Amino acid sequence: MNVSPLFLYPGQIGVITGSTGEIGTILGSCVSVILIDQTNNVIAMNHHVLPEVMAGETPTCRHGEFSLKAVLDLAIERGARKENLRAIVVGGAKMFEGTTRLTQIGERNVEVAETFLRSQRIPIMQSDTGGTSGRRVSIRIPEFKLTSTLSSERESGIKDSSLRVAKSVRVLIVDDSATVRSLLSNAFKANGLTVVGTAADVYIARELIVKEKPDVITLDIEMPKMNGVAFLEKLMQHLPIPVVMVSSLQADGDAALRALELGAIEFVHKPSQFDPIVLKQMADQLVAKVRAAASVDLKKYLSRSKSTEPVRKSPPVLGRKSSGTLDLVAISGNAGAEQRLVQMVEGFASDTPPVVISCSTISGFAETWCKKLATSHKSTGLNFRVIRDGEPLRVGSVNVAPAGSHVTVSERNGLLTAKLVQGESVMGQTPSGDVLFKSLVSSQLGPRSLGIVTSTFGADGVQGARDFVNSGGTLFVDSPSGVVFPHAMEALIAEGLPSEVLSAHEIGPAILMMRSKRVAA
After folding, report:
1. How far does the chain reach from its first CA to its final CA, in angstroms?
2. Rounded CA separation 375/377 (Å)
3. CA-based Rg of the chain, rounded to a whole angstrom?
4. Sheet of 124-129: strands edge to edge?
5. Which CATH architecture is the domain 6-154 placed in?
6. How far apart are CA 162 and CA 156, in angstroms?
7. Which of 1, 377, 446, 496 is least buried, going by the fewest C-beta atoms within 10 A?
8. 3-state class of 19 per DSSP?
9. In 263-327, alpha helices (H)
10. Exposure letters 271-285 (e unless 16+ CB within 10 A, then b)
11. Domain locations in the chain?
């Protein structure tokens, strides 16, 4: 019988026993101590982020001095004998060079682990620590052999560009405009994609799909004979293929939202005017999104609403020292984020601090999205609205950035205000999570804010989240196991930046607990 691997996020401990099993994690400056009893087939692992509990903090398994004792107790509870235990210490990379607060955190995490093991007289049989790269580590029963692979996200530029995507992508373009078909075809070919065909309507597209078997389809909504959404529904039922919707800003918002619900990977806004310069900018951004779509496990994606994610046995306990009130929640995401955002807001209370969402996927039909959520969440008292330049942010409001503008937040006379900013795309995204997070840093709102990163097909939001945490902000990341594009979240986890890794439906209750702790403090 195959047993699913046990994966640990920061601040968690776990154990596997029996004849077979696997446990692993991703580490940056964090450290894992792996305790092994081969005689009794027990492997226990922790993942601690900080070496010790600071004054005013609540001890949790994020802290080495607390976590190490907890994982030892767990190993013994599950059948290990202390005299049989051997240890592996792994992690503790130097991920924060140049920042005063966190520069030595990796070394200190390793030191705490080694000191604890010596005090317990548990021999260290292997050590894989230090360096400047994160690690993906795992260990299995019955082999009892550590697998440690350096994560290349920082070196290969996750902060600058993209992800693990298919190198060779075969794409079919479906659009009734000959100009758009030609433009996209030239852009795709110039960037190494293979265009297997173009179609002016869905009937031509159907024949080409059967014949050419493309990896990805770009599909317009407004099409002759049969609109793109109706075709998408039939396609996902009978011949599922990753689809990127491409339609004008004037497209029906309900149709765009329905396309995402049916399984489209991303929605891209096509300018209404046929300005060659504007269209070329759109086409260049679309290249990255098509590559990303080609990397999606479509079967898993289509079953996302039915999937079950691990649920904590108890609510998350925040170990960060309270720094005052929680005045703002800022959320960054794009492709694959729409459903996660819906799940998040389902847990928000009417007195939740103002929520600002930067998500390019929903920005083009933000009005429709807000109206739908307002209708389905009448009883919550939440106010869903599209951001208008200069308008204040109120408690209980969920504020969505519109298409074509970045959103920033500042404070004036004690009132938080959202501002819409025109500018170039950042990491291919407008609006950009990086811009939102960095505005909180420059406005000195970090210590009073919570940042959240969810499904992101590129690196948008990653550098901004780093700066935000270093300014004193608290960061949650959506559980990578539950999102379409987890790579940005995995990079942030590897660096030990999130205070919590939570499923979307857990975030609302965690915000409530966070506010309660800060008020009590």
Report:
1. 49
2. 6
3. 24
4. 13-17, 42-46, 31-37, 86-91, 124-129
5. 2-Layer Sandwich (3.30)
6. 9
7. 1
8. coil
9. 276-294, 298-302
10. eeeeeeeebeebbeb
11. 6-154, 170-302, 328-520
Compute the distance between CA of residue 252 and CA of residue 300 in angstroms, rounded to an integer: 28
Confidence of residue 102 (pLDDT cuts 50, 70, 90): low
State pLDDT tens for residues 174-233: 999 898 898 889 889 988 899 999 999 999 999 999 999 999 999 998 888 888 999 999
Q: What share of the chain is helix, strand, coil (3-state, %, to 5)?
A: 35, 25, 40
Sequence length of the chain is 521
pLDDT digits (tens, 9 = 90+) for 364-398: 889 999 999 998 887 788 999 999 999 999 999 99
Residue 462 is inside which H or E element, if any? helix 462-470
Structure letter (DSSP) for residue 484? S
Domain range 328-520, CATH architecture: 3-Layer(aba) Sandwich (3.40)
Rounded Cα distance, 468 and 197, in Å: 44
Q: Which residues of 318-343 are buried (b: 16+ CB within 10 A; e: fewer)?
A: bbbebbeebbbbbbbbbbbbbbbbbb
- Please give the backbone phi and psi of residue 132, each rounded to the nearest 5 degrees, phi first: -125, 10
Identify the band that residue 99 occupies on the pLDDT scale cut at 50, 70 and 90.
very low
The neighbouring-strand residues paired with 359 are: 333
Dist. CA 298–CA 263, nearest whole Å: 8
Answer yes or no: CATH 3.40.50.2300 is held by domain 170-302: yes
Question: What single-letter amino acid sits at 464?
Answer: G
Q: How far apart are CA 77 and CA 17, in angstroms?
A: 11
Rounded to two decimals, what is the model's pTM?
Answer: 0.78
